[in-house]
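call fold(seq) -> tokens
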Amino acid sequence: MIVPVILAGGSGTRLWPLSRELYPKQLMTLTGGGTMLQNTVERIATFGGVGDPIVICNENHRFMVAEQLRAANINPGAIVLEPVGRNTAPAVAVAAIMAADTDMDSLLIVLPADHFIGNIQAFHDAVAVGQAYARDAALVTFGVVPTAPETGYGYIKKGAASSETAVAGDVPVAVSIEAFVEKPDMETARAYLDSGDYCWNSGMFMFRAGTVLDELERFAPDIVTACRNSVAKGANDLDFFRLDADSFGVCPSDSIDYAVMEKTGNGIMVPFDAGWNDLGSWEALWDVGERDSSNNVTAGDVITHDVKNSYLRADSRLVAAVGLEDHIVVETPDAVLVTPRTMAQDVKHIVNYLKTHNREEALFHKTDYRPWGSCESLIATDRFRVNRLTVKPGELLSLQRHFHRAEHWVVLSGIARVTKAEETFLLEEDQSVYIPLAVPHRLENPGTIPLEVIEVQTGSFIDKADIDRLEDVYGR
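ret:
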């Protein structure tokens, strides 16, 4: 049985303003019909002989991860919450510990949740080769055959071929690993490409649970000790498994590449060419997108005149462009990005500025996704805010009160069950209720369709810090 380990952390800052810290790219639909998380799980599920995935994410994304898996009819073996980010080696150690508790010989395939793969069959062919070696106690990594002198990826230098066995079809052959190398400059990247001796480091791995634990014990025992303690002291919470924060907090931070793969004598690389892309920048999205006759990739309500070789995306309104070439233009409800394609990687400098100046545009969108639905900010000032609340059928907000703001709810569609102090009553379309300061209140959707509510908040201090939760089914 193959157990997928889906690494769903990260913030994807190079895709700002679409990707935000609290709503990163792996939870978005960037290509195809599903989100990147959903596509990653479904891609490996169709290989055959695959069990329920172990999904590892952080606290802030937990409800969105659970909802996306549910929407795709994916039953996770576990959704593991990391209290802090500690890179990929601890994440792999936690998954291996949990899988080995059932079967030390479980085959783990470690997949980042934010990759694009165009040729699923070629990916499956590579997995089949890796599976054979992993069963024989090898630690397998998958190297992407490079198509360009890319400076944004790490590389792996091929060693000698470890097998000459030919299989029907264009199946990759595993090779030994000579060296892992850091992201190169352009001149070095061109030399790597011309030599044919290097692959891009995909960050995907395959090994038996017991095998990778043995190697981690050998090369990074502190990581294993901290992870064993964090699993042993962890606890189930609703649909999630929470690692013990104190135990995991002392775990060293390291990648599985550095901690194990660069040191082990049992490493094997399977090169593969499957249209892989980590979609780590707007340039990457232009690269994999469907282009028009002017070599543009567009999404949303976009009108162009004399525009060439560009990526243009509109999320909430019309975007019109004239006379652009080799540019990125991305519009969201609260931000617009314009940059030459050649500088797409430098978006991170904007994100760093926003964080340094405590700008909320670095963290979340106008629409904030909650376990019960979503809250879209329509108007925001110092003294009042207007929000559009969407509550899913059967869901409810926490019982809460505010000491610095009052609220007024107007039902747009659906039926609302409202708790106000000691009263509980129903509101239908066009009906409203006023919630004064300090009065306990709750909004609930008892119906079978989404509940849409306009919320007007007024007061001297309108902030999440002024939420006193008295009861919450989601454990916040």
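The radius of gyration is 25 Å.
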